[in-house]
């Protein structure tokens, strides 16, 4: 369990898909092979079966498509929330580049030094960002800084560090004790996978549906944040009254965000959240 809630908390999530370029390089696929065919071949070599035609590939073989984060920061003594995503402009080829997405996010983390919160972030989300940053030849010295002693500062690489909170690592285990974000969130009255599923992301990308990927990514970040709030309440970091206030703050913030057209897609999330709260509380 994490020790405290820090001044800046970023609940984040990343989306990725098999990288055709990596497949061509590693497996010697023809340079002119279409991306869709290259991805299918990567799945085949990754153990695809009739029952599982799109197996989970090693993260180093995948390219990051999007990163979204709900950011909670204390300003003038009170928490303020924001929702951000990359690529910010889904129509801009420069912003779509993997190097831009990863580099922008890690640079921001290095500058702010927030407490990162994810679901399977230790083994997946944070790992793929580091792996693919290395593949892309990026540098992120501030993000990589480590203290001389664990208690002397921020550390995103230490197992059990308070600056890299993996909710799945805290709550899950092997066998029947394993859990998915969808299972945990839904039973808590929080939207899980209701509008799309992770296995659909590669097809979204191959068909140029960047906006759908980003919106799906934002939903996962919101869900991760709401589950984190519940776990923080369980750990005693928020009283019952404070926990309710934190949820109300997110709801109020979302209504404010939705006044801008680019946030209108959040209405679907709000509707599902209300439906699940009614079911679980009832």
Describe the structure.
With 282 residues, the protein is an alpha/beta fold. It is built from 12 helices and 5 strands. The model has no long low-confidence stretch (mean pLDDT 93).
Number of strands: 5
Order of helices and strands: EHHEEHHEHHEHHHHHH
Largest sheet properties: 5 strands, mixed
The strand order across the widest sheet is 3-2-1-4-5
What share of residues is helical?
40-55%
Morphology call: globular
Report the mean per-residue pLDDT as an integer: 93
Q: What's the gyration radius in Å?
A: 19 Å
Number of helices: 12
SS-derived structural category: alpha/beta
What can be said about this structure in brief?
This protein is α/β, with parallel strands linked by helices. It has helices at residues 20-27, 35-45, 93-96, 98-112, 121-135, 141-144, 167-171, 181-187, 201-206, 210-234, 240-257, 266-281, and strands spanning 8-18, 62-75, 78-86, 115-118, 164-166.
Output the keywords.
globular, 48% helix, 12 helices, five-stranded mixed sheet, 282 residues, alpha/beta
Task: Describe the secondary structure blueprint for this structure.
Blueprint: E1 8-18, H1 20-27, H2 35-45, E2 62-75, E3 78-86, H3 93-96, H4 98-112, E4 115-118, H5 121-135, H6 141-144, E5 164-166, H7 167-171, H8 181-187, H9 201-206, H10 210-234, H11 240-257, H12 266-281
Parallel strand pairs: 1-4, 4-5
Antiparallel strand pairs: 1-2, 2-3
Helix pairs in contact: 1-2, 10-11
